[in-house]
Amino acid sequence: MSDKRKDYLGWDDYFMGVSLLASGRSKDPNTQVGACIVDDQNRILSTGYNGFPQGCSDDEFPWNRDESLGETKYQFVVHAELNAVLNARGKSLAGASLYVSLFPCHECAKAIIQSGIKEVIYLSDKYNGTASDIASKRMLNAAGVKLRKFEPTQKKIVLDFDKTF
Fold first, then answer.
1. Count of alpha carbons within 13 Å of 58, Cβ hemisphere only?
2. What is the pLDDT of residue 4?
3. 7 neighbors 44 (Cβ within 8 angstroms)
4. Active site residue: 67, 81, 119, 151, which one?
5. Which of 23, 25, 128, 150 could form a disulfide with 34 if both were Cys (CB 3.0 to 4.6 A apart)?
6. SS (H, E, C) 53-117
7. Distance separating alpha carbons of residues 4 and 16, to the nearest angstrom
């Protein structure tokens, strides 16, 4: 009998990789965020990325961030975390873990708490210290949601569509 591979992905690297892959679906020209919700048996329950709601054309709604130009994306975009919660389509998320590429804002924190997610594993905390971040962390901590900064064991994950098996 031969030994098993030793360079396989660990669960954290795998699920954060899925969230990063999901972020690649975002058409936002500035910030692409992905999320992956996982149960306690390491099964993916849902994924999401930031984008406009179904039926709202990304060619007809604004992607700009500058309020002086009128409408901005902020009134219309659904964040990755909320999309992942909504994409679960009624599955129980109680006790689940959320892997997300960017720490959740205060609005997403509300959905995370209400859905029963018990752990948030995040890659970036880019907005650390902002009013939204402070409110988010306050609510998540008060609700007993565990917060954990992702620490990769792999420096990079490469997808190769030319790989032969």
1. 13
2. 86
3. no
4. 81
5. 23
6. CCCCCCCCCCCCCCHHHCCCHHHCCECHHHHHHHHCCCCCCCCCEEEEEECCCHHHHHHHHHHCC
7. 23
- List phi, psi (to 5°) of 13: -60, -40
Q: Rg of the chain's alpha carbons, rounded to an integer?
A: 17
Note the pLDDT of residue 71: 87
Q: Across the 165 residues of the chain, what is the mean pLDDT of every consecutive 10-residue run?
A: 86 97 96 97 98 94 84 94 97 98 98 98 97 98 98 90 82
pLDDT of residue 70: 75
- Per-residue pLDDT, 143: 98
Active-site annotation holds for 81: yes
The answer to whether 96 and 74 have CB atoms below 8 angstroms apart is: no
| Interior/surface letters 72-94, b for 16+ CB within 10 angstroms, e for the rest | bbeeebbbbbbbbbbbbeeeebe
Round to the nearest angstrom and report the end-to-end CA distance of the chain: 20
What span, in angstroms and rounded, lies between the C-alpha atoms of 97 and 120?
A: 6
User: Is the Cβ–Cβ distance between 32 and 49 less than 8 Å?
Assistant: yes
Predicted TM-score (pTM) of this structure: 0.94
